[in-house]
Amino acid sequence: MAVDETIRKQFSFGKTCVYVAVENELAGVMLLADVIKDSAAEAISQLRAMGLEIGMITGDRSETARSIADELGIDRIMAEVLPHEKSGAIKQLQDQGKVVAWWGMGIN
Questions:
Q1: Over 70: is that where the pLDDT of 1 sits?
Q2: How far lies 50's CA from each of 43, 47, 73, 90, in Å?
Q3: Tell me, what DSSP letter sits at residue 12?
Q4: pLDDT of residue 74
Q5: Quick one: which of 79, 101, 104 has its CA closest to 90?
Q6: What is the per-residue pLDDT for 24?
Q7: What's the predicted TM-score (pTM) here?
Q8: What are the Cα distances from residue 95, in Å, to 67, 90, 103?
Q9: Nearest Cα to 71, choosing from 37, 106, 108?
Q10: What DSSP designation does 66 have?
Q11: pLDDT tier at 63, thresholds 50, 70, 90
């Protein structure tokens, strides 16, 4: 399998690719993945048991967001949302009649 094909496959699994160059020559490729906190699945399960709908708004690529959402059982995702757009995404949900609670865990 070619390197490009391997990297494309890893993107589909939600990984991020970082290329490493030395003197303008490709020296390596690192694949990074988000690690989900052990307590996240339990917290989501408890919220869902309370009758709440769980969604995720993230700046991550769609593939990364979908990978994490699938692992946690989250159906509703909004990906590739820039920090200054997140309040607008929440407003969209509110305009649909949703009561929204925001839980942020990123650097924003």
A1: no
A2: 11, 5, 15, 21
A3: H
A4: 92
A5: 101
A6: 92
A7: 0.69
A8: 27, 9, 19
A9: 37
A10: H
A11: confident
pLDDT at 43 over 60: yes
b/e per residue, 19-45, with b = 16+ CB within 10 A?
eeeeeeeeeeeeeeeeeeeeeeeeebe
pLDDT digits (tens, 9 = 90+) for 64-89: 888 889 989 898 999 999 988 998 99
Residues 6+ apart with CB under 8 A from 81: 57, 58, 59, 89
Using an 8 Å Cβ cutoff, are 15 and 35 in contact? no
Q: How many CA atoms lie within 13 A of 71 on its CB side?
A: 16
Q: Two tokens at 64? A: 């990364």
Residues 6 or more apart from 102 whose CB is under 8 A from it? 90
Q: Do the bridges between strand 76-78 and strand 55-57 make them parallel or antiparallel, or are there none, so unpaired?
A: parallel
Quote the tokens at residue 41: 């699945």
pLDDT at residue 49 in the model? 93
